[in-house]
Amino acid sequence: MTLNLITFASALNKNVTVQTAHELILSELENHFSINFVDHKDIQKLTQDDFSIIFIATGGVERLVMQSFEFLPRPVVMLADGMQNSLAAALEISSWLRSRGIKSEILHGEVKAIIRRIQALSKNFQAERSLAKKRVGVIGTPSSWLISSNVDYLLAKRRWGVQYIDISLENVQERFAQISDDEVGEACVVFTNKALACREGSPEDLIKAMRLYRAIKQICTEENLDAITLSCFKLMDLTETTGCLALSLLNDEGILAGCEGDLQSIFTLLVIQALTGKTGFMANPSMINSKTNEVIFAHCTIGVKQAEQYIIRNHFESETGIAIQGILPTGVVTIVKCGGESLDEYYLASGMLTENTNYINMCRTQVRIKLNNSAGYYLKNPLGNHHIVIQGDCVDILNDFFHANSCKRIE
Question: How far apart are alpha carbons 195 and 200 in whole angstroms?
């Protein structure tokens, strides 16, 4: 990875070169990064895709930084090892930036800690750049009951660069009608053979669900979509099948797919993928035990690659079509949700997935999670209904990313 060091050095310090004066820290950095020294006069040559931090090489550069203020990368991260009065200058600059409402950070102290921090900053930077290029298809409109899950398309575009694109349900319906049963027959056989069991749903139901998957996949390819959120209940009326299988297969293929037109949850899935490479389980908190801090999360679809095994079921609410009951591995998990119309709020917690439950009056995939903190959030201050469950402890990396982007943590 290339690390651009925007170097500020005073013309008064001519007795040694920058590299010689800071040999200890620079030699260590070169073991982990490809270092590109950029003179502060050339700062405008860097692009938004260049990962850059400020290298305060000497004292006496405060006004030089001030004069370059407009072009400094945000947030302003300054490397200052203390040699050549560099730390003193960085402290003065940091205070000046803070007085103007600009976030800054000084990297100083143990070299190994500095390297770890730069690696974390690089991961955040790469995730931000990745998000800025994402295209999300909104197939239909958000479900009417998602009254607190709206996203302002313009604000989301300005803040994150993510583009939401409206796609009509009629577009899907037309493609669905053009796909024959024979075209999906083999895929249905493969999917069935890999299942642990088939409890409900006829072969005809599976064929319809697979045809719907093919129709949505066509749109994703033609529109160059990275993710979709589907108004699945409205689509059921048009196609007489459910979207659960389509969403499951798309998630497995890396096209993130969410239910019910939930704009906030699909963005959450994009953040998770950008930072961790993982796909999450979008679910309803269906039962909460405040005394034991246990929550049962449930939904009728999940990418089968997240599950150890899966059972073919029908859709819980409508008792029609095809749904997925995934059997997830027990162990450490993270629960996360982005909220707010400009996607500037978030909830984050870790816990232990202790059991795959099988209640008859809930959506098909069900997991019991014992949280490491209070479950009171869900009853007192929730960010809407759907939350995302991901395997592993990803709290630190996600929290660092949201904090760096000035998001408010809801607890």
Answer: 12
User: How do residues 320-336 score in pLDDT, each as one tens digit?
Assistant: 999 999 999 999 999 99
Structure tokens at 165: 């694109």
Cα separation, 221 vs 112, in Å, equals 44
Domain segments of the chain: what residues?
2-131, 135-409
Overall size of the chain counted in residues: 411
Give the single-character DSSP code of 306: G
Q: Residue 19: pLDDT above 90?
A: no
Tell me how far apart the terminal alpha carbons of the chain are, to the nearest angstrom. Answer: 36
> How would you class 288 by CB atoms within 10 Å of its CB: exposed for 0-12, middle for 13-18, buried for 19 or more?
middle
Q: Which fold has domain 2-131?
A: Rossmann fold (3.40.50)
Nearest to 348 by CA among 299, 286, 397: 397
Strand pairing of 387-391 and 135-139? unpaired
Task: Report the C-alpha gap between 323 and 298 in whole angstroms.
Answer: 12
- The strand ranges marked E within 108-246 are 135-139, 163-167, 197-198, 227-230
Nearest to 169 by CA among 179, 158, 177: 177
Task: Quickly tell me which residue has 């929290």 as its tokens.
Answer: 399
H-assigned helices in 40-180: 62-67, 86-98, 111-131, 153-160, 169-178
> pLDDT tens, 356-407?
999 999 999 999 999 999 999 999 999 999 999 999 999 999 999 999 898 9
Please answer whether residues 149 and 142 qualify as being in contact, where contact means their C-beta atoms are separated by less than 8 angstroms: yes
In single-letter form, the type of residue at position 100 comes to: R
The DSSP annotation for 355-380 comes to E----TTS-SEEEEEEESS-THHHHH
Beta strand 345-355 pairing with 365-371: antiparallel
